[in-house]
Structures are given as structure tokens and as C-alpha cells.
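Translate structure to sequence.
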């Protein structure tokens, strides 16, 4: 479908990615004159014609950025900065060789510093299976790491400098600072790099040098433990020590660990529905979206609570807006804490909108739903409702929310279906009338069910 011969960034977006758009366009203008040129493109995945492309490349959130190489044969996630200068710098590196040769001390100092991960291959010569495998891995992982190669280990800091290779040295700004490997099988080398480049505890604060490791933390397939506290508090050091001990114990058991400063973690607090008066607190999020929380904990609580979580003795935490004290508008308000009773256990036909407060399309739909709800006010079997999907946790096995607004209809008998037709008053009402269960029909079903039981 696409035939780009130079490296390029492909931008999957919805209509709400306004913050990134001007930075992306500025970067595109700068990179268009780069030699070799780097092509930046974008595609709106909310358009029907583009949904096949979004599905093909597993686009689940917006904005998503990907790097395409070799005419689309190699596709990688873009994990760099999201402001123009950062995008430009990141993609310039991506358009050059996958691994840079270190010939001098100046070369080494230009590539290696104490704030980033660098993987250096040391070889007696730049040929042979080991070197070819190293370069293959460098090409595959270049979007995530910086690679270099040399024939002189004396130019590589940290560790033994007399080796002649072949050897791979991973330099990092945390934990033991470097680790060596002599394994050159492609899969084994990739695994070594991925496992060695994860801090025992990822630190999240306002230091931009930590952000690549934070991104890596959230991209990990593991469940994620996040401890939030005030880094300037008197107890911060005690928490760090206890938390690291726990992280060391469980790091090979499918659980990754992050330590977040409250001041830098406001986005996470909003996402999880947390409050600062709960700090210090720990949250664990599993891959299926479940969350577990312990608020106002002490350093000595950490090990016990994580052990209880691992043994299945901690109940899930659910983010929910407060239950409204009054709910007398035509379109009823549903929150996570009322979803079960209001929707799943209800014997009414319910059209439920999942919306975001900032969504322009949702704002356009709002008066239409008000009109529909008003037209059904005399029909006690029909309810029109809405739920802020950004402020409430949802059962992902029932509702697949990939954009806003998303509409679902639950019939009185419990059948749930997604509404994907025109967002007009007439089309929505026609859908409701076609899919609703009427009271007399429900009564007939109940009588048939009771008769079947009597026969038994």
C-alpha cells in the first residue's frame, strides 16, 4: 500500500491530537530538507476509509507514531520526544547508520554519556557472524537504543579494557552501570539488551533524562507497581530503600517497579483517580486493566502489601466519579460505581454514551441525545444515559472504547450491542426501536421460562 524508500514517521491520529499537530508539522518542515530526507505523514484513523490501515497496524490509542523503513517491511514504534526539536533530533539519528563506529576517544565521548543507555560491540574485525548479528539487532532496536561498535575496548569506559572481543557492553546510568555479554545469537542478544536496560526501580520526576526509562516501563508487558510520594519528604529515603528491596525480590516475577514524585505525577493521579491526601500510596495495574491500591502506607507496609497482592489477597480498586446526588436531567449520568445496578441489572432498554469532556464530537452529539431523551420521557422502558470514560473505570471485556463518543445499547433482556450508524436523531431512534425489548415481550419470555421450569 505504501512505498517509501527513505525512513519516515507515520502518524496515526484522531481529531483531538491538537497539542502534537503543530510540533509535528514544524518537525516535518525541518526534516524535509534533511539529507537523506525524512518523510513525515499522518492519517486520520477515525475516517472509515482508514480503519483497515489502523487495524493492520494495531492502532489502539491516539496519537500513535510509527517508523517505517524499507518500503514498510520494517515497522517500529516511535518512542522519542513529542516536541519539534526532539522529533527532529531523534529522527536524524534514525535515518543514519544503525550503529556508529568508535575510532577515537572523541568518537566515544560524542556517543557515550552517563545519562543514557548505549550498547557497544567490541570486535577484532567488522565481519563474521557475531558482527552481522550485532548489526541486525542494532537495526531492529535502533528506535529504542543507541548502538556503537569498535575494535578497541580501551575506548569503551567501565569494565575490562583489554578484551579484544567479540563482546557486547551495555552502558547504563543506573544500577550496576554496565554489563557485558558474549552471547551473539540474535534472539539471545536482543533478550540481554531488553532485560539489562530496565532499572530495578524506574524513577519518575521532572528530569527529562529519566523519561525514556519511564516510557519503557509503561511499554513493558509486566504488571506495573507504582509508588508515589513526595521526594523532598523526610521519609523519602526510607521508602526508597524498602521499595528497592521489594523490587529486587519480585523483578523476575512479572512485576515492574516505578517510584514517582507527586509533583511530577499529576497526570497519573488524574488517570487513576487518586488524591494527594492518599500519599504515600502504591498502585499496581495489571495487563487486563485491573488496579490495586494501598493509600497512606508506611515504609514497612510495602513488602507485606506486595506479598498480599501477589498471593491474591488484595481486592481491585475501581476509579469512579462520585454518585450524583441528583440525576433528574433527560440524559442520566452513570459512573463506575453505578454501572452495575443502573445498566447491567436494569430491566430497561438503555442507550449509553461513553464520552470525553474535551471531545468536540461528543459536544455535537450532546444536544441530539438530549432531544432523544426528552422524546422518550413518557416511555418508562427507555433510558438515555452517559458516562465520562476518562473519569471512570470500565469493564474492558464488555465495552471496547477506542474513541469518543462511543455508543452502546443494552436491551431490557440484557443483550449488549455497539451503535455504529449515523449520529442523527432519526437514525438513533430507529436503532432503539429496532433493538428494544417491550414490556409485554419481556412478560412472555418470563412466562415461557416459568413454564419450562414447571415442566421440569
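Result:
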Amino acid at each position: 500500500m505504501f512505498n517509501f524508500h527513505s525512513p519516515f514517521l507515520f502518524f496515526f491520529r484522531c481529531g483531538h491530537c491538537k497539542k502534537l499537530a503543530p510540533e509535528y508539522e514544524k518537525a516535518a518542515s525541518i526534516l524535509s530538507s534533511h539529507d537523506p530526507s525524512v518523510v513525515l505523514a499522518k492519517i486520520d484513523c477515525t475516517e472509515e476509509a482508514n480503519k483497515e490501515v489502523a487495524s493492520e497496524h494495531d492502532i489502539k490509542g491516539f496519537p500513535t507514531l510509527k517508523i517505517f523503513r524499507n518500503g514498510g517491511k520494517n515497522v517500529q514504534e516511535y518512542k522519542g520526544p513529542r516536541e519539534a526539536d526532539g522529533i527532529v533530533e531523534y529522527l536524524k539519528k534514525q535515518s543514519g547508520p544503525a550503529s556508529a563506529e568508535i575510532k577515537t576517544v572523541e568518537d566515544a565521548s560524542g556517543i557515550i554519556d552517563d545519562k543514557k543507555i548505549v550498547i557497544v560491540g567490541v570486535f577484532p574485525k567488522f565481519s563474521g557472524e557475531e558482527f552481522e548479528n550485532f548489526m541486525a539487532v542494532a537495526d531492529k532496536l535502533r528506535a529504542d537504543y543507541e548502538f556503537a561498535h569498535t575494535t578497541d575496548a580501551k575506548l569503551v569506559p567501565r569494565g575490562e579494557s583489554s578484551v579484544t572481543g567479540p563482546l557486547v557492553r551495555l552502558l547504563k546510568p543506573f544500577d550496576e552501570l554496565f554489563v557485558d555479554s558474549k552471547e551473539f545469537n540474535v534472539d539471545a542478544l536482543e533478550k540481554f539488551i531488553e532485560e539489562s536496560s530496565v532499572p530495578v526501580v524506574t524513577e519518575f520526576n521532572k528530569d527529562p533524562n529519566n523519561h525514556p526509562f519511564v516510557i519503557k516501563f509503561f511499554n513493558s508487558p509486566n504488571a506495573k507497581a507504582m509508588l508515589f510520594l513526595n521526594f523532598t519528604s523526610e521519609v523519602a529515603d526510607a521508602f526508597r530503600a524498602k521499595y528497592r528491596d521489594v523490587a529486587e525480590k519480585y523483578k523476575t516475577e512479572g512485576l515492574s517497579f516505578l517510584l514517582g514524585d507527586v509533583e511530577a505525577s499529576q497526570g497519573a493521579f488524574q488517570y487513576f483517580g487518586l488524591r494527594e491526601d492518599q500519599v504515600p500510596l502504591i498502585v499496581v495495574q495489571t495487563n487486563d486493566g485491573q488496579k490495586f491500591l494501598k493509600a497512606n502506607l508506611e515504609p514497612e507496609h510495602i513488602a507485606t502489601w506486595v506479598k498480599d497482592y501477589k498471593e491474591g489477597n488484595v481486592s481491585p480498586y475501581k476509579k469512579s466519579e462520585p454518585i450524583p446526588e441528583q440525576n433528574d436531567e433527560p440524559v442520566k449520568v452513570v459512573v463506575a460505581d453505578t454501572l452495575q445496578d443502573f445498566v447491567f441489572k436494569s430491566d430497561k432498554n438503555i442507550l449509553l454514551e461513553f464520552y470525553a469532556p474535551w471531545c468536540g464530537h461528543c459536544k455535537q452529539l450532546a444536544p441530539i441525545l438530549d432531544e432523544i431523551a426528552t422524546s422518550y420521557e413518557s416511555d418508562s422502558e427507555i433510558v438515555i444515559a452517559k458516562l465520562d470514560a476518562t473519569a471512570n473505570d470500565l469493564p474492558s471485556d464488555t465495552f471496547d472504547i477506542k474513541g469518543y463518543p462511543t455508543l452502546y445499547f443494552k436491551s431490557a433482556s440484557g443483550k449488549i450491542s455497539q451503535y455504529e450508524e449515523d449520529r442523527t436523531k432519526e437514525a438513533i431512534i430507529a436503532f432503539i426501536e429496532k433493538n428494544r425489548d417491550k414490556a409485554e415481550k419481556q412478560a412472555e419470555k418470563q412466562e415461557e421460562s416459568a413454564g419450562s421450569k414447571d415442566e421440569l
